[in-house]
Amino acid sequence: MAKSKERKHTMLAEIWRRFKKNRQAVVGLVVLVLFVLVAIFADQIAPYGYDEQNASRAQIAPCAEYIFGTDNLGRDVFSRIVYGSRYSLSIGFLAVGISVLTGGLLGVIAAYYPKLDNIIMRAMDLFMAIPQMLLAMCIVSALGGSLFNLMLAVGLSSTPKFARVVRASVLSTREQEFVEAARAIGSSNFRIILHHILPNSISPLIVQATLNMAGAIISASALSFLGFGIQAPKPEWGAMLSAGRKYIRTLPYLTVIPGLAIMAVVYALNVVGDGLRDCLDPRLKK
Amino acid sequence: MLKYILKRLLWIIPVLIGVTIIVFTILYFSPGDPAYLALGDNATPESVEAYRIEMGINGGYWERLGNTLLGLIQGDLGLSFRSKTPVINELIVRFKVTFDISAWSIVLGIILGIFFGIISALKQNTIWDSLSTGCALFGISMPMFWQGLMLILIFSVTLNWLPPSGYGDSWKQMVLPVIALGVNSSATIMRTTRSSMLEVMRQDYIRTAKAKGQTYWVVVLRHALKNAMIPIVTVIGLQMGTLLAGSIVTEAIFSIAGVGKYLVDSMLARDYNAVQGCVLLIAFVSAILNLLVDIIYTFIDPRMKTMYESESGFKLFKRKGAGQNG
């Protein structure tokens, strides 16, 4: 037991060593950690409440006191962006969590039980025939636009993608000798899947999850922007963009700033995802 | 080969039926009764029932699903709740608009993507490479709707060069939406071109071609690019599907009366027959595009043709394709 723990540790250290070499990915990781901290300590960081209106300070362009300016109702845009990070990050993490769970489960079942393989994967093909954004739109309009429903819609709409990744990865692991050995000593299917197959086929899943988090944040903000999903007074970035769009001629920073915030998070996730892919890719392992 | 194409075309039918069942089921359980929405809350039960019969939305889940599928087979997508006209007529008019914009966008995406992909692979680890990969990374990180808004802000509001909205009055109205959609897909195409070219350029046959004295650009274009094309074509095919979905947001921003805007408006108005029609149309077009991509493969790599023609090879290929996707 102690030995395996030690090996795990050195493997993580090895991955970290390779990840560190990629300067861009490290920058992305730092940006991501900063956003997570901002989301956690939003109450301390934001100088005003996200819905604190004050007509006397409406429509102030970015300046020293209001670094991102104030909107038409006199709300401080910086505070709204700070609180908005909670929405985007939680949607990113939880939506992907939902797709990892559902897609992972379906993928493992499909790969491990050939009888169910065809049924599950054909059903997934059907869902893949509908563009992801469209599927999410249908689901969220059926459930109604709350934060949780938005996560569910975005998460479920990428389930088929994860099912495919996991299935492909498990299929190749299943043929390895150590799985045969585990079966030979009489391990149950459940134990084999949980202890032998999953840990050995997890790296494509991690990469897919990181990159998908970026996609999930973009889809969720696009849905809010279009009027599904989270609605205005809430400081969701997509909803802020949609509200600020009316003032694009007079107060352009209301559309520029929320977009920059989305882009920063998505960019960070993309470079971290690329970095992880490069250091987890077995083809590059020497 | 013809047999294979026919088989694939026939396969689209069950896919469309499956998509209909999925979308119908999701929308069936959506809140909000279209009859009460149209007639107001004080409508009498009789008038509600009459409205339902007129719109063809009477009966329970199975009855309505059956009717929807029967209609689909006859090419009837039902009536729009809002205009009370057949959805299919509306879709045909609007699809031309969406098709135009998407086609120009993918052309722009392919040209930019392949060009910069090749440059950055050939000049790996130089400033040109970092510049193009950096730009591509920004491209895929930018939300498409925000990119559209920024284009409006720069080229319409600030510089006043191009109109911010509309379609069909002049070619100028096409420029911004096409850039918004095309640049976004060029980023993905560029990244795939780069990695595929890098892999091919390391192969022995490239060294052979160079060694026998072939000129540099012939090696790059005829030997390398041709062999690097399979993943690029795959990604272009995927991007065309993404473009169709992206047109939803782009059309909403630039107020273009295409399928995407129709879908968003219908969804917000709970006009479910129209929503269903739009989703079906988009799924159908995506299926046709996938088939086209598979046919294009045979021109790039003749080995694929033999694979399609033999039954077992087809299965093998399908399986391999699924693995590659993951």
Q: How many discrete domains of chain A?
A: 1
CATH class of chain A: Mainly Alpha
Instruction: Please tell me the overall pLDDT of chain A.
Output: 85
What structural class do the secondary elements of chain B suggest?
A: mainly alpha
Structural class of chain A: mainly alpha
Describe the structure.
The complex is a heterodimer of chains A (286) and B (326). Chain A is built from 13 helices and no strands. Chain A has helices at 2-21, 23-40, 42-45, 77-112, 114-128, 132-143, 147-157, 159-174, 177-184, 189-200, 203-226, 237-244, 253-280. The longest helix of chain A is centred in the first third of the chain and has 36 residues, at 77-112. The mean pLDDT of chain A is 85. Chain B is 80% helix and 0% strand. Chain B contains 14 helices and no strands. Chain B has helices at 2-28, 34-39, 45-55, 61-73, 87-122, 127-141, 144-158, 172-201, 204-211, 216-253, 259-268, 272-300, 302-309, 311-325. Chain B is flat, with a radius of gyration of 24 Å. The two termini of chain B are 27 Å apart. Residues 312-326 of chain B have low confidence and may be disordered. Chains A and B meet through α5, α6, α8, α11 and α13 of A and α1, α6, α7, α10 and α11 of B.
Concise synopsis of the structure shown:
The complex is a heterodimer of chains A (286) and B (326). Chain A has 286 residues and is mainly α. Chain A is built from 13 helices and no strands.
What secondary-structure arrangement, pairings included, does this model have?
The complex is a heterodimer of chains A (286) and B (326).
Chain A: H1 2-21, H2 23-40, H3 42-45, H4 77-112, H5 114-128, H6 132-143, H7 147-157, H8 159-174, H9 177-184, H10 189-200, H11 203-226, H12 237-244, H13 253-280
Chain B: H1 2-28, H2 34-39, H3 45-55, H4 61-73, H5 87-122, H6 127-141, H7 144-158, H8 172-201, H9 204-211, H10 216-253, H11 259-268, H12 272-300, H13 302-309, H14 311-325
Helix pairs in contact in B: 1-4, 1-12, 5-6, 5-8, 5-10, 6-8, 7-8, 7-10, 8-10, 9-10, 10-11, 10-12, 11-12, 12-13, 13-14
